[in-house]
């Protein structure tokens, strides 16, 4: 016996078929457009944010990464030189220092003023760092900040990272 | 790619094993030579992929405007050359000699492209690119005709009769190898080697393009070694002229006219989008996933392989839903590609979007083909194809520079948004109009 796959010989009216197919295309589009690249691992999916594209920092290398610590106590400071190796200008930088004080982990975060970074141009900064409050630094990160409307977006994945030996 | 490699929906189906004809020893040798040439060509296409060339063109100092223009120019030149070829009849013997020479020149033009990129000379690049495009169309058309004449379908064997499918896999694989080499030996980490006592340092992309050039030249040389079938001279294809009758049919049939406009818009959108996809991926994901050229290769291999299943999906669904609704669906799927690049550019979403976009292209291609059969008289079909190809050049000349200008001034993301919006806002309503007009015409008949 022959089994007919499409029972109705007349089929769908073109208009209904069009509406069904448009709905299908729109839903497929919605799914695809909202897929994220989380499977790619690490923080990399965050650097895929549209606003973060082309933003990539590295510490300038001159006999090792250019991150320096000076002073002591409350009058301490931290200096660094970063290179922007991406393609788009970075509106602002955020400095994150993970330290340790009396066995406790401390976090120093500062959004740096006048830190617009152009591709290919190194940026040098000297920032006040209170050793009495934040202790000895263990890790220094400089993260690009992008703008999304009025909000700031941290472009993780494009940051320069230095682990203190 | 310099020559676009896709599976054509109207391509002849391979012959089943039991219908294949037995081959003599000489014929078997010829078949092996043909097969070797085909494989070499496919490897060459993969290594000299259009996407790689676009990226390298930008790296050699070209603006995005220029990239858009050159991609549009490629299409225009291809249409003009195939039109001229159609008007000129060449005997088979001339074809063969000409093909080998043309093939050698094709290799040379790829080589000069490499020099242009290496020397960062945009002028040399443009000249080489246009020459390569002209030669590619000449070479492709002449070779296909000659191949058909000299090795009939029933003597091609399993692999050669399915070369349009296996060829995609070969092209894809060579694209991967090319991308790996280009990434491994970047400009700052050139490949150092000694040749004839001289130490050379070449970037990976230069090595890849030189290999492609050599492969094309070897392929062309191989043609000279293939004996022709017999002394019998077969005539080439008949000349196809654009007649007044075709023009009358074209202007009097509203459905046909609207179909032409929508297909021209789709074609322009695809040309512009494809011109910038590779550059966008390379620029935005050089530190992500596989990195640099490899990301581009992987995403375009997805598109390449999808082009195999696209026509199969279409043929099933056209029967169930009808041709016009499928055209609307196909257009919407094509629009998903550029809009994803604008809205959520990450490798996963872009890969999925490219998959859908390629299926959309196949749906539109197959539906257009079926509609042309339905709407045009058999004797006017070829002439109509010529006419629509030539007429498409007018919107190309206007809109490709505009699109390229948008990419240059407002960026690729905005261009992608505009391309998607154009498809949804102009082509979809046009199809809705066709559905209405076609039904009205049918009822009238």
Description:
The complex is a heterodimer of chains A (165) and B (445). With 165 residues, chain A is an alpha+beta fold. Chain A has helices spanning 14-33, 44-47, 131-134; strands at 57-59, 67-70, 77-84, 92-101, 104-112, 123-128, 136-148, 151-154, 160-163. Chain A has one domain (43-163): Sandwich (Immunoglobulin-like). Chain A is 17% helix and 37% strand. In chain A, the strands form 2 sheets. In chain A, strands 4, 5, 7, 8 and 9 form a 5-stranded antiparallel beta sheet that branches. In chain A, strands 1, 2, 3 and 6 form a 4-stranded antiparallel beta sheet that branches. The radius of gyration of chain A is 26 Å and the shape is elongated. Chain B has 2 domains: 1-239, MFS general substrate transporter like domains (Growth Hormone, Chain: A, Up-down Bundle), CATH 1.20.1250.20; 240-445, MFS general substrate transporter like domains (Growth Hormone, Chain: A, Up-down Bundle), CATH 1.20.1250.20. Chain B has helices at 25-47, 50-59, 64-87, 92-118, 122-150, 157-161, 163-184, 204-224, 244-252, 254-284, 292-321, 323-343, 347-375, 381-410, 412-444; strands at residues 191-195, 198-202. In chain B, α7 (163-184) runs antiparallel to α11 (292-321) and α10 packs antiparallel against α13. Chain B is mostly helical. Classes of the chains: A alpha+beta (165), B mainly alpha (445). The interface between A and B is large, with 35 and 37 residues.
